[in-house]
């Protein structure tokens, strides 16, 4: 008798993460659903946030480090008039100020300063390492420290609605319904904090939903409950074709590539970053990068 558990197929699972779960919680849950330890994620999502979290199962874990460098899209609510220790609604309020006098023109001017290629200081309660120690750990222990600003790109930062509200402590505040398209590594709660600082009243993020990671959109995502009932895995070849430029090779070159030979790459792929190489019958062979005109392997599948 063969008691070995069937191996789940290689591929990506696009999860609609629930609020209150860490990205690691979702990975742990998926290990149980898919019955494998080989599960990873392509970029964390804060516990408060919901939406697209890309998981790799089995061989697809090799794609994840390369997927993390893609553009992301969010819908969120920024509250002007209050700062919090975490720059979002999870943390204690550290200051309040009447935001009712802030005009739409002032908001738009502040938004414009935070759009394009900018230098951003990540939130202190974040997973960034400072001298080998997570920033949030230093913050919880009451340390005084600075996080260096990092370059990020905010392709678009749009305000859809401005709503007047009154906070629990009686402060008149403004809630902005926003969408953001940005590079990986951008903190939306830091945008909320910096917008509030620029307007002189403070700001923090009260809600966040990630609607896209690279080519993977919220309409293809499944909740954990749905995945528990039916595990939907995007096949490895389909996932790679959606995320990377495609290079098709014949049988001879496919054999050479999988045997470690560095093939000459067409000039069209120079500077393109990771490229997915496909052999006959739509078989994903490898992820490569052009280096001096030749294919340098980043991950081999075939």
Automatic annotation (TrEMBL):
Q: What class of enzyme is it?
A: isomerase
| Pfam families in alphabetical order | TruB_C (PF09142), TruB_C_2 (PF16198), TruB_N (PF01509)
Keywords, sorted A to Z: Isomerase, tRNA processing
Q: Where is the tRNA pseudouridylate synthase B C-terminal domain?
A: 189-232
Pinpoint the tRNA pseudouridine synthase II TruB subfamily 2 C-terminal domain residues. Answer: 244-301
Q: Which EC number(s) does the record attach to this protein?
A: 5.4.99.25
**What positions constitute the catalytic site?**
46 (nucleophile)
Ranges of residues in domain Pseudouridine synthase II N-terminal: 32-188
- State the similarity comment: Belongs to the pseudouridine synthase TruB family. Type 1 subfamily.
Name of the protein in its database record: tRNA pseudouridine synthase B
What organism does the record attribute this protein to? Streptomyces actuosus
Q: Gene of origin?
A: truB
